[in-house]
Structure formats: structure tokens, C-alpha cells
């Protein structure tokens, strides 16, 4: 079994690929709490693969990569993208992964619609609750359309999750990926501004509503789209 | 007529207007419902002269059969799994999850139980609990006897 060290990070890619632990032993890298050197020596230098998020790159990590890039396979996932960091790292690491909206010739592009087929398999859709959900995740602010429908503007049953810095009584707490799936299954409507869970909402039988600029329940629709899985992505690019 | 006996979890009976109002309401309930048992479960009291209200040690609450009133989240966490409790009325004066942001599943375990009913201190709290959990049964700004009597007499 491969030992792969992956950045501990609250984003969809990191949170989902750790479910594929049948063939991969994922080890958390909780940086900057842990020095990457100390982490590697603690694991007795048994880690030969690192998936590191661009958002945590520091001088220490760059030095570590430069020192060990002939012994260790480094994959940099650009959860945040900057040309400068890309130009610095792309030549010295094995692979780079960018999000769907970034075009870089020598990088692996993460598709827009990609789902966790460990979680979203053999789905049985229960009776839906009349409620709408929105995953705040890493968005710093709420979209205008959604704000117009929140209390006290309306009493619409909208529940939000997963970002402590957004202060609102309809923000109900943290979620892991399994809990997100359970909420999609039980909810009638998935509200979105960045389509991140649109494919999952489709599989869970939700209506979808874009709340970026407006909140118009008449615009709720059933999405139909194609997607790939993290399983196939891992097989094609990482394993 | 009350359907069940009624207990009030008040770990500390402080000498303040809110607690005095609660006790006044309890006394009115006792006067109007001779066939129903009412009691307070308490650890420490600063109040004197609470005649006519049975006060039991808080450790006895887990054996209580009937409806329970709680007034803070800590008490709600303790009583929610009591085996013989019927309805739990949580008198909410704030929105619990806004002061302590944690995992959604922790709040869901508490507030999705069918026998937990919120009585809100104001309309804002009433609306938010209904948006989030659909479990607020009404508003009582000062925990007055007439309002609490109505809640207790509603069908389940």
C-alpha cells in the first residue's frame, strides 16, 4: 500500500480523496502546526509521496522540496493559484494539479464536476424535507441572492454550513463529506454560487438554485450533467 | 387539566427577577392544578420563602416521569436522554449555536428529537428555531402563568 501524505485542509479535493483508503494509506500533514521536516523524520522517512496544497507553501516547504525531490514524489495542488508560485514549483515537482478554471499546459486539470464514488454509490433517496441548504465552505462572504432570502428578510427554511467566520443564525455548524451527502439526500433544494456540489446534488435528487445574484424559487431546476469520480482521477494521475 | 406531571430543572435558584417570575408561575400552576404534581430540581438556592413548591435534589430528575422545563443548554444536554421524560420544554433566551460554533451533528442530535419543544423568549428566537429545527411552539417573553398554561395544555 502506498503511503501518501496529504495536506489537512478544509476543501473538497482534500476532504474527498482521503476516502480512497483501500489502496492508499493517507497520512495527514497538519501544517504549519507540524514542521514538514519533523513530520517526515517522525514517519521514519517512509513517505515517498506528498500532496501539498499551494495555500500552505512556505520557505521551509520549498526548501524541503528542493532537498528531496529526487527521492520523494511531490504533487502540488493549487487550491489557490498564483503565477509566481506556479513558476517556482512546477519545474521542481513531479506533478501539479489546478482547478478547472485554470489552464496550464503542464498541469493536471481537476474537472469541474467530480464526485466521491465511495460515498455516492447505491444511493436511495428518502422522503425529502422542505428545506434548502447552502455550503459556505471557503467563501468569505455570502452571495447577494442568498442574503436577500435569509432571516430577517424572509422566513425561508434555508440552512447554511461550514464556515465559522460567517456570522448568521442560519449558519448551523461544520460538516464533513458524509454529512454533506446526508443533507443533500434529505433536502429538497441545493443552493449554490460556485456549483461545487452540483453533481452530488443531482445524484441526491435535489433541485438546484443559483443564488449568486438573485433568489428566485421559480428558477429552481433539476441539473443534468456529466461528471467523473475521484477514484478514476486518482487512478489516472496519482496511483 | 395537565396531561403529565411537570418538573423544572433550575440548578441554581438565584435571587433575580427572572427566577422569581418562574417561581411565581410555578406557584400559579400548582394552585390551578391540584391533581398534577409539580416540582423544582435544584442544587443550590439563594431564595428564601419558596413555600408550596416541592424542591428535590437535581440528581432525582432522571427518575422523573412527566414533562420537564429547562432554561439553559447544559440542562437540556443532561435531560434529553432521560428515559421517563415525556416532553422537554426548552425556554430559549438565545440561539445556542451562535455562541458556540461546532459540528452541525452535535446540534442536530439535540434539536431534532421529537419531544424537545422550544418556547422562545422573543419572535426572533422563535423564527430562527423554526427555520433551523421546526420545533418552536410559541413565544413567552416573561414566562408568565397564562402563557405557560396554554403550552402545557396543547395536544402533543
What descriptors fit this protein?
heterodimer, A: 239 residues, alpha/beta, 6-stranded parallel beta sheet, B: 156 residues, 7-stranded parallel beta sheet, two-stranded parallel ribbon, 9 strands, 35% helix, globular
Question: Please, could you describe this protein's structure?
Answer:
The complex is a heterodimer of chains A (239) and B (156). Chain A has 239 residues and is of the alpha/beta class. Helices cover 25% and strands 23% of the residues of chain A. In chain A, β4, α4 and β5 form a beta-alpha-beta unit. The mean pLDDT of chain A is 93. Chain B has 156 residues and is of the alpha/beta class. Chain B is globular. Chain B starts with 5 loop residues before the first strand and ends with a helix. The model of chain B has no long low-confidence stretch (mean pLDDT 92). At the A-B interface, β9 of A face α4 and α5 of B.
N-to-C terminal Cα separation of chain B, in Å? 14 Å
Low-confidence stretches of chain A: none
Instruction: Find the structural class of chain B using helix and strand composition.
Output: alpha/beta
Sketch the major β-sheet of chain B. Answer: 7 strands, parallel
- Biggest β-sheet strands, sense, barrel of chain A: 6 strands, parallel
Please report which band the strand proportion of chain A falls in: under 5%, 5-15%, 15-25%, 25-35%, 35-45% or over 45%: 15-25%
Unreliable spans of chain B: none
- Number of helices in the DSSP assignment of chain B: 6
Compute the number of strand runs of chain A: 12
Break the fold down into its secondary structure elements and pairings.
The complex is a heterodimer of chains A (239) and B (156).
Chain A: E1 2-7, H1 12-17, E2 24-29, H2 36-42, E3 49-53, H3 59-68, E4 73-78, H4 83-89, E5 95-98, E6 108-109, E7 114-115, E8 129-135, H5 144-149, E9 158-161, H6 177-186, E10 187-192, H7 198-203, E11 207-210, E12 228-229, H8 230-237
Parallel strand pairs in A: 1-2, 1-3, 3-4, 4-5, 5-6, 7-12, 8-9, 8-10, 10-11
Chain B: E1 6-9, E2 12-13, H1 17-32, E3 38-42, E4 44-45, E5 55-57, E6 66-70, H2 73-79, E7 85-92, H3 96-99, H4 104-111, E8 116-120, H5 123-132, E9 136-139, H6 145-153
Parallel strand pairs in B: 1-3, 1-6, 2-4, 3-5, 6-7, 7-8, 8-9
Helix pairs in contact in B: 1-6
